[in-house]
Design brief:
This protein is mainly alpha-helical and about 230 residues long. Helices cover about 85% and strands about 0% of the residues. It has helices spanning about 15-40, 45-90, 95-105, 110-135, 145-170, 175-200, 200-230. It is elongated, with a radius of gyration of 25 Å. Pfam families: VIT1.
């Protein structure tokens, strides 16, 4: 009898992939837009660099805090649901057995077999069985606030460093053009990597992140130029 091969499903990457791609994308777009806006206002290279570094630090902290609060709320909800489920299992075991079996029946399992499956799963770990099949909570999708916060901050910082590096190597007269083109290339690569890792359409994802990044940079460049001219 041949051994079944292990399958590596892409859904297991959803948590960290979302945080990493979102963080890096925001890092590139917000920092590049800030740099371009300040540079378009005829600021010195030093001023542009200081603004970019400040944007990196502020953005990374904001991403970490926002992600932590958001995922913590999800974790609190999961804990409350699990506590309620634990109490119901202790006080209404038969009702919970029937409820779990009904879930399998609704999926197409014959009633007698569904009850047998429910009995076996509840005998091994009743709370885990109900958490997974009734509440939709599993090890893969469980909320991890600190991990999400650190991943977002790190990804944002990595993304922000890319346009900042362009400031250091660009001649002042071409700073806006170099940062813009390089940042769009970074976004395109990021979109392709994210799509590839998540099994999505590469061309579609790349076009999406590049378009919105270009729009953001164009708007901030226009605002910077307007204030720089009027000043």
């Amino acid at each position: 009898m041949s051994r079944l091969h292990a399958e590596n499903h892409l859904v297991s990457r959803i948590g960290w992939l979302r945080a990493a791609v979102l963080g890096a994308n925001d890092g590139i777009v917000s920092t590049a837009s800030l740099i371009i806006g300040v540079a378009a206002a005829s600021a010195t290279t030093t001023s542009v660099l200081v603004a970019g570094v400040a944007g990196l630090v502020a953005g990374a902290m904001s991403m970490a805090a926002g992600e932590y609060v958001s995922v913590s709320s999800q974790a609190d909800t999961e804990k409350a649901d699990l506590a309620r489920e634990r109490e119901e299992l202790a006080t209404q075991p038969e009702f919970e057995r029937q409820e779990l079996a009904q879930i399998y029946i609704d999926r197409g399992v014959e009633r007698r077999l569904a009850l047998q499956v429910a009995d076996q799963l509840m005998a091994k770990d009743a709370l885990s069985a109900h958490a997974r099949d009734e509440l939709g909570i599993s090890e893969t999708t469980a909320a991890r606030p600190m991990l999400a916060a650190l991943a977002s901050a790190a990804a944002f910082s990595i993304g922000a460093i890319m346009p900042l590096a362009m400031v250091l190597i660009s001649p002042p007269s071409r700073l806006v053009a170099v940062v813009s083109v390089a940042s769009l290339l970074f976004l395109a690569v990021l979109g392709a990597i994210g799509a590839r890792a998540g099994g999505a359409n590469v061309l579609k994802a790349t076009a999406r992140v590049t378009f919105w990044g270009a729009l953001a940079m164009a708007l901030t460049a226009g605002i910077g130029a307007m204030f720089g001219t009027s000043g």
